Amino acid sequence: MASRPSRAKTWYGHGLPYIAKKRLPGHLIAIEGTDGVGRSAQIQLLRPWLELEGYAVSNTGWTRSPLLSETINEAKAGHQLTVTTFSLLYAADFADRLEHEILPALQAGFIVIADRYMYTAFARNSVMGADPQWTREVFGMALVPDLVLYLDIDVESLIPRVIMGKGMDYWESGMHLALGTDLFDSFERYQSRLIDEYRRLSSEFGFVSVDARLPIEELQGELRKHIAEYLSGANGKPRPDSADNGASTRKE
Amino acid sequence: MICVEGIDGSGKSTQLLLLERWLRSRGYPVHFTEWNSSRLVRRSMQRGKKKNLLTPTTFSLLHAVDFADRLTYQILPPLKAGMIVLADRYVYTAFARDVARGVHPEWVRAVYSPALRPDLTLYFRVPIDISLERLLSGRAKLKYHEAGMDVGLSTDPVESFRMFQSRVLEIYDQLTLEFGMHPIDATAEIPHQQRIIRTMVQEILRDYDRDRANGNGVPSQSR
């Protein structure tokens, strides 16, 4: 087991200069992965496990800020967004959660599990044709997560999951990009591009990539194993028990 | 693209209105757009201000959404159609106010990098006391964010306004050099200021007039 030295948190860019430097003893774990890959189901299972291990957990999720969530939903319904306004709305939502949820929880020593992080914006904006450098600069106020777990899946395996789940929706199919009039074709094209982008980001930012085609319990076991490994490295404490299984992990 | 900048109470909106009247009377096609006026983030902005949820970063980003939305719908199409766009406040407002609130100057410049550079930016320079006098004679109370109460410099609105807007003024002065804004003495008589402005505008409209005379609907835009 690789032990990771406990390290200070860093800002991705300029950070939040007006915030006094405070100790952030908590842990920030981001779960990334494309639409319908099963992030929320996995996060639901992680929380009780971590709590049983004695960690206080705080969840935060993309577009869930009290300040912006309504505005984003309305704007999506009204189809008046451009890739620029889209990105800035996401950034505002993110900043609101960063300052009101993530930082206070980290300060209080919680484990923060983020359902999607800035990499989602990087991936989507790239696919939607925004200047990638600009997107990254806008998210310069972000805190770099301690661990990014990437749920990796290929589009062929994703499709049946989405169809049997909540179905293909307008945005997740990238219909706003007008790639075609057929929902299925558009979904396939848009999601393939997104997945390509996520995989590129995964190697650039050192995500821990986990095979999301695994059955739920096995995937959960994999995630727990990586989190336990990270925590033991960060705390110098004995690692919490992770479910035993022999599933393979791809590290990119 | 012509825009006006300055702190609250500098008289910039009044001058822009007079300029608009004059341009329209001379037959120019004019489109007016104002800072923080798009419907897109109105509710978030109201909610954030009312419940005091805004941080310097979300305050900045909500205004950036407003700006980007207006850039798409209010600024670029009229410019492409060969109209004159008059903007009451532009990106320099963010560069001054948001930085006075504590965000990083490079970050806010990056956020607004999709903006295009105006052909003329007029900066209405006014001492704090005069702007305060104008604001307080017009209405009884200073607005919370206008006074920079969110920054926590003072619990007294007038004192807070003085401290916060002094910072903003200082940054505006630096921006004047950085971006070549034209300073206007906003303590001068209103008609006097307007005469100076009309002369400047006439100057930059010479190319525009020539293009229109040559039948080019779309004058070249400088970035």
What is the structure about, briefly put?
The complex is a heterodimer of chains A (252) and B (223). Chain A is α/β, with parallel strands linked by helices.
Account of the protein in words:
Chain A contains eight helices and five strands, in the order βαβααβααβααβα. Chain A has 252 residues and is α/β, with parallel strands linked by helices. Chain A has a domain at 27-148 and 217-231: 3-Layer(aba) Sandwich (Rossmann fold), CATH 3.40.50. A five-stranded parallel beta sheet of chain A has the order 2-3-1-4-5, sandwiched between helices. Residues 1-6 and 243-252 of chain A have low confidence and may be disordered. In chain B, strands 2-3-1-4-5 form a five-stranded parallel beta sheet, with helices on both faces. Chain B has helices spanning 12-25, 42-50, 56-80, 91-101, 105-111, 128-138, 157-179, 190-213, and strands at 2-5, 30-34, 84-88, 120-125, 182-185. The termini of chain B are close together. Chain B has one domain: 3-Layer(aba) Sandwich (Rossmann fold), CATH 3.40.50. Chain B is globular. The A-B interface holds A 13-18, 66-68, 70-71, 74-75, 80, 82, 84-85, 88-89, 91-92, 95-96, 98-100, 134, 137-138, 140-141 and B 40-41, 43-44, 47-48, 53-58, 61-62, 64-65, 68-69, 71-73, 101-104, 106-107, 110-111, 113-114.
What amount of the residues of chain A lies in strands?
5-15%
End-to-end distance of chain B: 10 Å
What's the CATH C level of chain B?
Alpha Beta
CATH architecture of chain B: 3-Layer(aba) Sandwich
- What is the CATH superfamily classification of the domain at 27-148 and 217-231 in chain A? P-loop containing nucleotide triphosphate hydrolases
Radius of gyration of chain A, taken over Cα atoms and rounded to an integer in Å: 18 Å
At CATH level 3, the topology of the domain at 27-148 and 217-231 in chain A is Rossmann fold
Specify the helix fraction band of chain B: 55-70%
Sequence of secondary-structure elements of chain B: EHEHHEHHEHHEH
Helix content of chain A: 40-55%
How many extended strands of chain A?
5
How many domains is the backbone of chain B divided into?
A: 1
Main sheet strand line-up of chain A: 2-3-1-4-5
Number of strands of chain B: 5
- Strand line-up across the major sheet of chain B: 2-3-1-4-5
* Class inferred from helices and paired strands of chain A: alpha/beta
**What sort of overall outline of chain A do the alpha carbons produce when their principal axes are compared?**
globular
CATH architecture group name of the domain at 27-148 and 217-231 in chain A? 3-Layer(aba) Sandwich
In quaternary terms, these chains amount to heterodimer
CATH superfamily caption of chain B = P-loop containing nucleotide triphosphate hydrolases
The residue ranges of chain B in which pLDDT falls below 50 over 5 or more consecutive positions are 219-223
